[in-house]
Amino acid sequence: MSSPPPNYPIPTGLHPIPPSNLDLRPDSAIDQTLLHPLPISSSSKNIWFFWHAGYPSLHPYTRRNIRAWHRRLAPHGWVIRVLDLAPNSPLNISNYLDVSDPQLFPAAFRDGTIGGAYALQHASDLVRWPLLLRYGGVYADVGLLQIGDLDRLWSATVGSAGSRFEVLAYDDGGGVGRGLCNYFLGSGKGNELFARCQRLLVELWEGRTSTEGMHASPLLKGVPLLEGTFSFEEEEGKAVIGHEEARRMLSDYIVQGQVMTLVMNLVDVEGGWDGPGYVKEHVYGIEFMVGAQLINELTAWDGGLAFRLMSLEMPREGEGESEEQKRAREIVETILRKSFGFKLAHGMILKAYKHTLGSLWRENEGSDDVVGTYAHWLRYAMVYWTQDEIPSPVEYKGNEPYKIGPMLREE
């Protein structure tokens, strides 16, 4: 990364990372390491990403995301891998998992027949739990910016033999609804929550080539449809998508999240599973809105505004601060202090908002990496500084399960 200009202030609540704890080689050297990662070992310190066409085809801003993960975590023994479906690629998923195994992958994945507008997103959904179950570690979307000290949090939870926590994730259920976001999932090998989720997800895919209509499966009975933080009404051709239809579409799109909600809220005496009890005891949930969506909340989900603010140049020495610069500074300082990460939004959300910060960084190549801008200040901080504290977990409360009985029995 470029050296910072002198007016990159370090916010309170953060401290510099010693250079010896960072991999500060040039980008080209980092890329070579990412393309040729170390072999699998007995360690669960694995960071898993997936991009169907391979790391070299990633958009530049997401390559910067992944390099930042590597620079921070590799010196602590983590190995970052970006798996793919590219023919003859050494990082092809088939070199890590048996893609012919029907317990790991549904027929649509095995045959390459996943369809629908979000086929690639659903393919990436289907590799997450099999990787974690076999190897352990953290699965993250390529659009997730890591801010907090993941190695410290891991060492205090999943990575500690004395910890009661077995799962790391962002929680979007508020502690009562018990729901997890699928863009960041961490566990050791063979985790029993994720093992049950895997079985249910593969069962839901049986005989299907897309997730359309999965929300209505009897196996998900009792799981509320997802609510967006936005209005989803829009014109699609000549049809108007109303609120309830939008909830169904969103629930199909994030069916992996619906699966986790069902399993977390399942009591299956025959199968020896008490979902609410397991979650309360073993899931370290980070509140997701502050934890990973705060830029969106601070800009009222206005992607154009977020992009404009992050693209502003910071005041030079001796210059005053405009109102927009003040707002941009407060956003960067707030997320660096409070957020464990930031999930750049793409996918179905673009039906509602047309633009997000992530989509505009994609369209305006290099705009997230201009020295002297608030975006670059954020990117610099993600590599060179870390938070003084790790985030507190959500306190899970008791509530009635959504389902009582065997997981795969239709109600």
TrEMBL record:
User: What GO terms are given for molecular function?
Assistant: glycosyltransferase activity
InterPro entries, alphabetically?
AfumC-like_glycosyl_Trfase (IPR008441), Nucleotide-diphossugar_trans (IPR029044)
Q: What is this protein called?
A: Capsule polysaccharide biosynthesis protein
